[in-house]
Amino acid sequence: TATLGVLGGGQLGRMFVHAAQAMGYRCIVLDPDAISPAGAVAEKHIQADYLDHLGLAQLARDCDAITTEFENVPALALETLAGMRVVAPAAAAVAVCQDRAVEKAHFESAGVPCAPHAVITNDIELAAVDPALLPGILKTSRMGYDGKGQVRVKTAAELAQAWNDLKRVPCVLEQMLPLKAELSVLVARGADGQVVTYPVQQNLHRGGILAVTEVPAPDVPAEVATLAIASARQVAQALAYVGVLCIEFFWLDDGRLVVNEMAPRPHNSGHWTMNGASVSQFELQVRALAGLPLPEPRQHSATVMLNLLGDLWFTAEGGPTPPAWDRLLALPGTHLHLYGKAEARHGRKMGHLNITADTPEAAHAVALQAAALLGLPTDF
Length: 380
Ligand code: ATP
Ligand code: MG
Ligand code: MG
Description:
- This protein has 380 residues and is of the alpha+beta class.
- It has 12 helices and 18 strands.
- 30% of the residues lie in helices and 28% in strands.
- Strands 10, 11, 12, 13, 14, 15, 16, 17 and 18 form a 9-stranded antiparallel beta sheet that branches. Strands 3-2-1-4-5 form a 5-stranded parallel beta sheet, sandwiched between helices. Strands 6-9-7-8 form a 4-stranded antiparallel beta sheet.
- A hairpin with a 5-residue loop joins strand 10 and strand 11.
- It starts with a strand and ends in a 6-residue tail after the last helix.
């Protein structure tokens, strides 16, 4: 049997491992933590830092091909591994996704518009910021996720203060845009250049964290969906990307579509594919990595995905204790996925619930019932 390696031991790695094992692969996970969601289910777990040469050498020795589940894995680790084994996605593509300034330049060079923005790395650039970008969001160029490393600013004075608060690391200031909806598109591209896509996903965020994904996207007209998919293909093609890539879009009040950011891996907004599509995003990642054909995904069920954050583990009485799942799972078309995380924390992704049905209306109605049972907002 062939062996696949994964850098990173989080939930995305865990679901990748499950998909790989179902297809007969052995998996080895490399993660700095002794215990991790993916390490717990893989055949082997290497506990090492991402730049530890012994750990990387061991991973390369024992694997036929290696991927990453973690977008902030040092690109150097991927580059080192690529000298020894098949690595997908490539270090260069991941490096583009790791830096918002570079990422935005890539979108523009691929001919896909993104939010008006300015790069801030020094006082001169700070002083030169076009006031038309305010109010805006100051984002650290590197390492941010789930809305971390972001400050909303209204005035030049607030901007200067926020940049100080962010320790004056390289940042991007983006104009605050009026969003009609947030969308994302998953693309999978093979080493041979074959590209397949999933339907457009409509995403609701709460507090900077994904809360709900609905597919088909309830509010999106066909021409916007077509443009989003064409733009996503263009971005993947221009990167010569291999593997699953997720591109996030803002659909604006004036009808324009701009790209927000991308993730070089399967994505939370694609978890619906585990129950609503003929092939999951994790199986496509396995196939792309193993050099196998990529089938065009077919959506067979309308699906709503609800994220299950650690907050649900804490009740008025205290916690952490998991919610009682029995009443939830009595609802038709509910599929529970838990990531096996040892400890619940506020804002931590503990699992997700996929709700499938024959029609979008039916999936939506059950999702509202599920949210109410969980005590989640029913604002979608
Ligand atoms: P992720 O966890 O998806 O990687 P992130 O921390 O990289 O998130 P972004 O996707 O850049 O952050 O922003 C998080 C959320 O903040 C967006 O999904 C959107 O709701 C809001 N947001 C970000 N930028 C803008 C903008 N320019 N205008 C309006 N809203 C924005
Ligand atoms: Mg991000
Ligand atoms: Mg995002």
